[in-house]
Amino acid sequence: MSTTLTTNAILEGKIEPAGMIVASGPGLDPELFRVCDHYYPVSGYIDHRGREVQPINPFEIETVASKLRASGIKSVGVVGKFSVRNPAHENQIIKRLNNGFDYILAGHKVSGNLNFPRRIATVFLNVSVQSIYKLFFQAIQKSIAKMGIKAPIYVLKADGGTMTLEASMEFPGQTIFSGPAASIMGALSYAQPKVETLVLDIGGTTTDMGILIDKVPLLEPLGIEIGGLKTLVRSLNTESIALGGDSVVRVRSGHIFIGPDREGPAMAFGGPAPTPTDALVVLGIMKEGNRSRAEKAMAEVGKLLGCDPESAAQEVYSAFCHMLLGAARAMVERINQRPVYTIREFLDTYRVEPQELFVIGGPAPYFAPKLSEMSGLPTRVVPYHEVVNAIGAALSRTTCELTLFVDTERGIASAPEEDFYKPIGSNFTIDDAKNLAFSLLSEKAKREGASPEQIETEVVEEFQFNMVRGFYTTGKNIRVKVQVKPGIIEGYQVDAQEKIATSYSQIS
Amino acid sequence: MIKAIHKTGLVFFPAFDWAISPTHPEREERLLYTQDQVLEEGLLDIEGIVEFKPDMITRDDIRRVHFCVPDEWSVITDSHLISGGGAKTIATMVVNKVVERGFALVRPPGHHAMRVVHGARGFCNINIEAIMIEYLRDAYGIEKIAIVDTDCHHGDGTQDIYWHDPDTLFISIHQDGRTLYPGSGFPHEMGGPTAFGTTINIPLPPLTSEEGFLYVTDNVILPILEAFQPELIINSAGQDNHYTDPITNMRFSAQGYAQLTTKIRPHIAVLEGGYSIEGALPYVNVGIILALAGLDFSHVKEPDYDPEKLRQSPDITQHIQKVASRVMEYWHQGPEIKEKFLNQGGIKERERTIYYDTDNILENQREKIWVCTECSGVWAIESWTDRGRRIYAVHIPRKACPTCENLGYEWYESTSLKLFDCVFLQDRKNRRFLTKKHPS
What we know:
By secondary structure, chain A is an alpha+beta fold. Chain A has helices spanning 5-11, 58-70, 88-97, 116-146, 165-170, 179-188, 276-282, 291-305, 309-336, 343-347, 364-375, 388-395, 430-447, 496-503; strands at residues 19-23, 39-42, 45-46, 52-54, 75-80, 103-106, 154-156, 162-164, 196-202, 207-213, 216-217, 225-226, 229-230, 238-241, 247-252, 255-262, 356-360, 379-381, 401-407, 412-415, 420-423, 457-469, 472-484, 506-507. In chain A, the strands form seven sheets. In chain A, strands 9, 10, 11, 14, 17, 18 and 24 form a seven-stranded mixed beta sheet that branches. Chain A has a five-stranded antiparallel beta sheet with strand order 21-20-19-23-22, with helices on one face. In chain A, strands 2-1-5-6 form a four-stranded parallel beta sheet, with helices on both faces.
């Protein structure tokens, strides 16, 4: 299942009032991150190593709790600065809140990444969609049971992975923006190994763009942005541009401008303004639609350009593909401009350079030839391109990520997302850390619905620093981030070499 | 939504895989906790704060500034090319008005690297600020530039590079050289004969706190900057005046650094020293970034910050007031003394011994300058080390008059390789860099 329920609830502001308790300590003024009316900065301060500098004030928490109860708040988020290094304060606050709330979420549970403002936003989105999501969840369970279906239900996340419906109850925010992920995942099984693929999902109003590298989708470094909030919701690196088959075509001082708005369907389908779809109809690329109305649309454009409708259609068709490829190039450049922090990575000047182009969405087959011609890339229309997102949602496997911190000077290994703490000795190595991280990750993945044989894990980030105090090495600071790779369920992968030739057209 | 008042660019290059040696203060871990703090505070998400990926500097970028012995590649590592490149990238973004201000949070640092480089001094091999500035001058024609060095150690390398340049105002505040490496930076050090008065040194006594730093900022740095009217202000933003720094003795704070930054209003800040990697750097850097961006930094405090405990004693306050008035007195006399030097004209010489503490090299220099009234004068350095290297280096300034230009070539051509391992010519006017070497 892939749902736009949470996305729409947030974008339309149909969310439940929620309470936020925020332990910031020094830094930026926590008022700057206020996300709602019931937002309470409280005392308590943990530093970057996870050491307590200032304790929380239990009396203060009790006061906030009674204010929240008095306001009828049912869902509460609790977020501390550096809680991913030590969630003690979040846990202490939650303990004090105990009674009278339906749903309480702690910041350290949503991500292992550093970023206090995003942690606040992420927790807030989760707690404020929770009650809506719960209704949806119960309705789904009921109707599925009525239909006699006993199969486990999985919900798609924005990172192109799934979780079980039950697991999604804890983090409903993870279902935000799973739409673009569904399409990318649907295209994934057709990608070639060892190749970088640019995926364009062309719709009526917008086009979503994503990148596959060696059959693995590229992920966003931190998380998605929605309704002006930057979050830690893990997601695929997709960008959306306001350019689609129904975008309005205008001419200003002899130049064609397409979008960003859509006023309705194309004129060929009874709409009010010229669109790229009308160009497709005039050029005979698209057989459907009312040809005379499409010609009227292109005549309007042609009048302003000083050419006949046919030439105008040709211009619009080119301009559309030109804009699309320009946006895609800009996205690739932004990815390549991401900073790196080691000399090795700097000198290993890896750059993303797509070698093939996948086009999906309704108008995919119509734009593919021109996109191929203009980009010079082998271009493919993915089979079942109109419903590829449903295929993606159905075939994606369970994913998750986990961050492990080891501080041998303090003698601890911790993965706060999993509420995991373990005392360790000074001889703990980075390999020990990776093994520990993998086993915690597998547990997490299984709990969220992965079948053990499906869990393909990898290290995303690993750092080891000698900690020197005075002139002596006092310990090691190890950071390991691991993930279950997003991908397609075993057994449903297309054998790229075989199927390409038969199942879809290869243009160019 | 938070929005920066001044659009601010950052280059963050912590070189997590580079160290001078495993337990050296200049090691992999140095900016780790700073990165943690910057990421956790979400600074990079603020609208108007942009992170850029650094470029690398080129050999010509280095040759505009240094005489590297025996050559550039022998005295640097990739890390230096990237940290220099970080400063250059930020500077380019500022000059091209992509951002209003910028901060290169890079390592290794550079402000102890002098004109002639035989190796590393004070953890520095090449002077990344000077490389950045001279690139800007050649690429964008920027003339008047001021550098305010707020590292706790005297910026002797930057001072050396700009000793004869009247277009560069170099102001350094630092812990008194009688109590700390490199032992220089006294008020009477005011520049060479043709650039006298554009080098300003403000030595502060140990245990100086916020009050003292801000006093000299208001009463010395700001009036001198105002009078100089620079096109660009650069801050060599060392952070080792902090009260927790392990290798210095000052009592400055994150609040203090942020206020200092607000007052100086640098276009470009470049990280220099600062080795309290947990107690100071995370907070000082957050403070500086917010101050550059024009955002509220009043909540940025170290865990153990207590301004009462850090307050300086009345005798320190008095001492600082005396230093400040002496520096101002000297500065006011500057133009008159420079005039005297110019009237005397002719060749002026100086001799010095320079110690490279990091690489343990002892260098001797004899420097001569042709004191010219038409331009800042051609000059040459004879340098020999205890390792047995001996070089001769000639510098023709950017705005050299024809006489000085010819004299420079004459000095270069007439110097025989019989006496030297290498003879260098740095012709900034025609952008030519020549080297004579024994065939290897």
